[in-house]
Amino acid sequence: MSEHIDFTALTAPDREPIARLLHRALVHWYESRLGQGSRFGGSHEPFTLFPDVYEALDPGECVTARTASGEIVGVCFSHERETHVSVGIVATAPDAGGRGIAKKMMSLVLDKAKRLGKPARLVSSLLNLDSFSLYTRLGFVPGAMYQDLLITVPETGLAAPAPAGIAHVRDAVLADVPRISDFEQTQQGIRREKDFAFFIRNEVGAWRVLVSEAADGSVNGFLAMSVHPSFTMIGPGVAIDEETALALLWRALDGLRGQTLVFLAPCAASALVRTAYSWGARNVELHVAQSTAPVAGAKGIVFPTFMPETA
Ligand SMILES: CC(C)(COP(=O)(O)OP(=O)(O)OC[C@H]1O[C@@H](n2cnc3c(N)ncnc32)[C@H](O)[C@@H]1OP(=O)(O)O)[C@@H](O)C(=O)NCCC(=O)NCCS
User: For the N-acetyltransferase domain, which residue ranges apply (predicted)?
Assistant: First the structure.
């Protein structure tokens, strides 16, 4: 890299430039490689939700790359959790790409994870060899594969009948946070109480969390979602089996009538995926969970998301 770049934390005035950078990097990458830049819309404004949410959730953890004149040319969000460090969206300005900026930002996050003695986890596009390669070069190991399903929920709700399990699904309250976290830890070997409490408090962004309970009252699934108009996406969530996952998903979609949104579903959950197709969902991308230390024996049906990024 010829020009000197500083790697620093995010400050309040960076909100707008970071939103512009995220929008520009995504539009440029997806348009130049896949002809799909329009999928990110024509304005950077919805992307201000990313710095707003990440800074509210974990102030000071974002890494930015700046030129000597102060221009932000790279951003990498990350957040420490009980069991791991989650890495959120990573982006480099198109005209600053290929010069090691993303690699340096990621290395700083990985150094932090190492100091904490925790693995790093993220979700990476399988259509984006630049980011896939960046992560695998840094020691991330690809794991479960997910399909990004785009669905428009009719104004009148899904035509398909509600799965039987929806009787056991309700909106979560703060008191559910430890139980949801225990369930995720049992299934996936990760814990992140702070995220669930943040969603349920609902102070920055707009969130909903559903929880499903078995006949004995134990948690057998949960599904969070961002319902903010700037970013509507289902996830994160985990269910004990596909039936429970479908009940949570149906309830989530029913609350999003008239909206078009994306959710990620495990490719291996073939019954769930085929049911989603029958509801009108279409594949638009593939993602893979990556970790520097994959959890052995992870189980359950996982719905990852992109903000706050989870896998
Ligand atoms: C993905 C992105 C962040 C990469 O940023 P960047 O600053 O250009 O990346 P870097 O120059 O730091 O590093 C790229 C690394 O991947 C390697 N790489 C890229 N393509 C590769 C390939 N096909 N095979 C192997 N390695 C590859 C490069 O060689 C480099 O590693 P090296 O320095 O060890 O040689 C950037 O393209 C971007 O912002 N894209 C749009 C936003 C996005 O999609 N973000 C990822 C989703 S979260």
Answer: 5-163
Residues of the chain with pLDDT under 70: 1-2, 311
CATH 3.40.630.30 range(s) for the chain read 5-118, 147-303
114 C-alpha to ligand 1 centroid (Å): 22
Pocket of ligand 1 (CB under 6 A): 25-26, 29, 89-92, 97-103, 125, 128-131, 133-134, 137
Residue 35 DSSP symbol: S
Distance CA 103, CA 93 (A): 13
Quote the CA–CA distance of 11 and 60 in Å, as a whole number.
8
What pLDDT digit, counting tens, does each position of 229-271 carry?
999 999 999 999 999 999 999 999 999 999 999 999 999 999 9
Q: What is the pLDDT of residue 309?
A: 84
The third-level CATH classification (topology) of the domain covering 5-118 is Aminopeptidase (3.40.630)
**Centroid of ligand 1 to alpha carbon of 201 (angstroms):** 36
Considering the domain delimited by 147-303, tell me its CATH architecture: 3-Layer(aba) Sandwich (3.40)
